[in-house]
Amino acid sequence: MSNFLKSTDFGILLIRISVSVILLFHGVYKFLNGIRWMEGPLSQVGLPFYIAYEVYIAELLAPILIIIGFRTRLAALIIVFDMFMAVFLVLREQLFAVKEAGGGWGIELEALIFFGALALFFTGGGKYSVSTKSSWD
Fold first, then answer.
1. Is the pLDDT at 47 greater than 70, yes or no?
2. What pTM was estimated for this model as a whole?
């Protein structure tokens, strides 16, 4: 039991699950309610609307891949890109803001997802993954 409590692989599993479950809620919401609202922020920076469909890959498919541990590094990289785009397109005014309620950072959730996914990009999925043979795992 003591070896299990000191397991890096178990820690990676917890990061995989926590980052993915949090992001899945956002993806399911967008799947059920649509992404038409993204047209404005995309057009403001000169990007076509079809790019918004990336959110379904990044917030539905990628978290599922990370949870099961299949192509974890690739899925994590997709999420890193998604969080960068979310801040750049929608939340850039909150980048240096402090939230009134509780004094938190304006983009703390996005930052936690970004850095959690970035950590998974560097670590890979760990021992508790369905796939460990590819360099993208």
1. yes
2. 0.91
